Structure formats: C-alpha cells, structure tokens
Amino acid sequence: MITEVQSPDFYKLLGVKPNANQKEIDRAYQKLIGKFDSSEGNSLDRPTLKEQIEEAQEAYDTLSNKEKREAYDAVAQVKKRPEPSTPVKPGPLQFIGRKGQSKNRKHQNVYQDFFGFSEKPFDLTPDPKYLYLSPKHKEVLAHLVYGLQENNGFLKIIGEVGTGKTMICRSFLRELRTDFNIAYIFNPAINELELLQTINSELGLPGKSKSKKKLVDLLNVFLLEERAKGHRVVVIIDEAQDLEPKVMEQLRLLSNLETDTEKLIQIVLIGQPELEIVLAKDGLRQLRQRITIQWELLPLNLEETRGYIQHRLNVALGKGKVRFSRQAIETVFCYSRGIPRMINVICDRTLLIAYTEGTKKISPQIVKTAVKDIGNLVPLESWTDKFWKLVIPSAIAAGLGFFALNFFALPEFDNKPKGKDIAALIKEDPIDMSSPGELINYSAASATVAPNFPVNVPEVVTLSAVVVESAPKQIPSNGMLSISDSEKLVTYLSSLTLVESKLEAVKWIFEAWNIAPENLQDKEDLEILIEDHQLLQYEMNGTMKRLQSLNYPALLEIALPNAQGTKYLALSSIKGDIGVFGSVDKIEMPLSIINSIWTRKAIVLWKDFENLPESFDLGFKGKEAVWLQKNLRLLGYFQGREAPLYGPKTIRAVRRLQRNNNIKDDGKFQIDSKMLVYNLLQIYQTPELVIR
Fold it and tell me: Is residue 61 part of a domain?
C-alpha cells in the first residue's frame, strides 16, 4: 500500500498571497519566526516547535527560489486533479504526513544549515559530550572520584539551579569503571519504602516487597557478595533537596550496612542550596556528621562563560562558522549570571535571531534582542550600579551626620594665636625632617589642646615599618624575581585575571621561539599570532618528568587555593631542581614550589616543520615513512633499509624512542613523538626546556 503524499500550503503557512513578491515573503517569514516560542509545550494533536520551524523554513526556501516556486505551483495544480495511476514518490517539495515523515528532510533545525552545525549546540538536554570542564567542574569531579576511591560513606554536592549538576552526574556515571554498581535515583519525591524498592530495583534485586526489613536484608546480602568480588555499590540521588526528613533518616540507616573495617554502600547527595536547609534540621544531625566530603558547584565567571560557549560551538562542528564578539559574550554573561542553563537559553534564541537577520557575527544588540524576547532576566549589577546604590547614599549619610555633630554637639575651640596666620606659625615651629623615624607624641600634643577631654590614641606605626611594607620587590642583579615559597607565588598570581596571566605567560613562550609578541592584548590577538607563525597547541596532562622529556617550554595551569581561581605560568627553562618561570616578571624558584598548585595540565606550543600526517600507524604508505626512518636512524633507533611503508621495523624503532623518553610506547608516531623527534634533531630550530 502506498502512503498518501501530502504537501502543505506554503502560501497559507506564511500568510501571503500566491502572487506575493520577495519583499512580502521576507517580511512574512520574519514575522512568523518571531512568534515561535521555545517554551511552548508539545501535545499529541499539534506539531512540535521544531516541526513548525522546519515547515516555515521549507516554505520560505521554496517560495524564495523561482524554479522551486514554479515546481511547487505545478505540484499544487496536480493535487486538484484525479490521482495518477503511477504512484508518485515524495520529492523535495513534498513530504509524508506527520507520522510517516520523510527521513530525508533537509532542514533538521531552523538555523542548523545556515551556521553549519551538526546539531543544536545549545540544547537544554544534559548531553555528556557537551560537558565543559571549567576549573569548578574539575574540582567537583575530583571530589566525587576521591570520595569513591576513599570509600567515604556520604558525599554531598550542591549547586544553584542550572549550574550543571545533572550533567556532571551523568558524565561521572559514564566514566565509572565496571567494578561499580550504581543506583541512580532522579525522582526523590518518594517515601522510605519506595526508596528501598527503587534502590533494589536499580541494582537488579527484587524490589516489589512491601516489607522494609525484607528489602534491607536482600540489599545487605547483595552488598556482602559484591564486596567479596571487589565491587563497590553507590547510590546517587539527584535533586536531593526534595527528600523528606524520614527518607533522609532511612538513608542514614542504610549507611550502617558495613563490615568491621569498611562501609558496604556509598551515598552521593546532589541538590540545590535548599539541601543545606533540609540537612540543618536537628533530627538530621547524625546524617550531617556522616557527610565527609562536600562541595558547591558555583556559576561560571566571564572567562569560563566564553570557554563554555566556544566549547559547545566546537562540539556541534560550528568552529569558525559563527562568532560571538567579546561584548556579546559579556552581555550573555551579564544576563545569564554564569549559569549554564541560562547561557544555553540565551544563546539558542540569539542564534535564531541572528539567522533571521542573515548574519553569522553575534553582536551585543542581537543578544539584547534575544534577552528581551525571553523576558524576566535581571542582569548582574555593574560596579557603577553598586557605586550609586551603596557609596553615594553612604557618603550623603556620613555628611549629614558630620554636619549634625558639628552643628549640635561639638564645642567651638579657638586655640589659634591671635594675629598670626598659618604661614607664620609654620615658620616659628618648622617640622624637623632630619629624623624621619621619630614619632610625634600625639597624646601629649592632644592634652595641650583639650585638657578637659579624654583622648583615645590610636596604635602608631613607625615610618620605618611603612617604608619596609611599601618597598618594591627585590630583584636580583640577574634581572629575575626570586620566590622561595608557594604562598608568595599565590600572592603574586592572585593579582592577575585568568586572561592577563595567560597573555603575560605566553609572551615568554613566544620569546623562546624568537617571536616578538607585539600588540598582544587579548585572546584573539594570541590566536592570530599563533596562526601567523604556524604554531600548534598541544594540551597534555602529565608530570614534570614528562615535560622534561618533551623538552619544550610550556604554559602551566595553576589552581590557586581558597577559590582564588585559575591562572597560567610559563615554564621557560629547567636546570637541576630550579626552574625559570615567566609571568609579569621573570621568576626563578625551585620546581617543588608549584607542586601543590599545578593542576598537571600544560599547553605546549610546537611547530610541525614537515607538515606530517596526523598519525602514523601500521600499514601507512608514503614518503613520510622514509623521512621518519632516516631520522630515527640518525638518532640510533632504526636499522635496515628505508621503505615507504610504516611496518614492524618502524614500529619497533618508534617504541624504543618512546620508551627512552617516557612516552607511551604504542608504536604510533603521533603528536608527542613528532615533537620529540623535531627537538632531538639538530636541523630544526626548536627551543629547549632543559639546560644541560
């Protein structure tokens, strides 16, 4: 049986007449798009928002193209005639009814084709592949991993609505090893019995019993069996702020399931800040005491918001196809307050408006239009707003208070000698500047002025102490700042923003490559400079030993304590246990100082002098294999005749190279191996990290 082919009335859909011109079609289309609201709910008897937008897009494309419009008009005329004997297949201007919609629909999303996305980059669904690991998210994940590794009983993570708690949870679950059994509860609006039933069902145990004792006994037996196998059992409760106190108490009782030496079950509570209020109740003080690890997921800052937006665009294959200006991102941050969910909402509507305007450059005006469409978004207060709200009223109040005190309370004093002005008084009793360290006896002086009033003398600081405190940093004769402990380094870096620290640090890396970083003002300038000099970025996680093996200067990611943020520091050279680092100043200090604050993440700039293939592997054929074999021979790793084939001999040589230089010996000639060979060969001008 052939499915009936249906074609929508595109003129009726756009609200134009059959003889409408292009200007009328454009106006009608933009008006129709402006009416769409992504917050509308879907129902079974009406098309979804996505389907409505797709139809509008198809109608616009068809009526805006002369050939397509003529073909559509012809098809519309055919529809009025009797059905032909030969079945007609759905064409590009026809599509099957809603239930049998053609799979070859061109427009998956209203702006997807225009921007070249593979999918919507700012969808609200928590897809783990879009997880952006800001320093805040890294810390939360680190605490989760640490808590499970140490077998702590209770872990708690709180975060404001939309900060990405569920995304973190799902990504964490996806990365867990197979020796974990997870019970994930995402609907905590249940009672004690339903909690036990849900946990057992999630773990694959019988969960229909209405006896709490029987359910707990089954769970206990299962936990003992899993522990004997070396497996761990974890219960993760999302939206935990909705748990009733009685259910919380039941969780505490479950945590009593243990052996003589360790807990049998671990419980992770993930919720909004209201979870703190629930746990603060007196009846839950025992549960509160058992929470050994807790962390708060904070909103993103401006720089993290910029990285978040770019990350999602890159994942959706939109790199370079749409550009948010710096001011546009600042506007997004201002209205979203750094909350990822609101960033998604604003950016999604922004891209829709940009599409209707036919531009791929996102300006602050487009973002503000999107914010206005969404409505009810209150921006962050700027420093000028705070100034007018706080400083000015305080100054006025202080002025009024001083006026009232002066007018009503203070007696009048007139101790100035008659007939003498201030210049004459100073001439008679000049200040002796020959002894700057001497102090004035304020108490004695005050007593001569007002003997009838007690004087509170403030603590006096010597001038010499002030001089020491305000003295500039002592820089040795070699021009380098010397830092001897990590606290001084933290103080030094805390005065810089993330971007400032990165730009200052990368200048030293450019200097190592003999590049003059002129007019390096922001990240865009940095990217242009890197591209102009054909440098590549290699991000790695490793140890100082691995950095020394690669032997390139590197940018180190530094996480300052007490939530002071992430900074960057250039590691320019190493001699023994001493490193030369770069920021605003050139710094010399022991390598051990950065151990506690280096995140083990580094960025290395390198150059692919020969434009080699992305990866060499077994079976690769080409002249590049001969180049590799010849240079491995020069380095003493390859023996035999060269051939344009990446075979077993080449793999063995590459593995020896990798083992001798602390690189994973998989025999694949990838980025780290390329960097190493270029650095070891004398014919390529590469900077060296280790001074021998």
Answer: yes
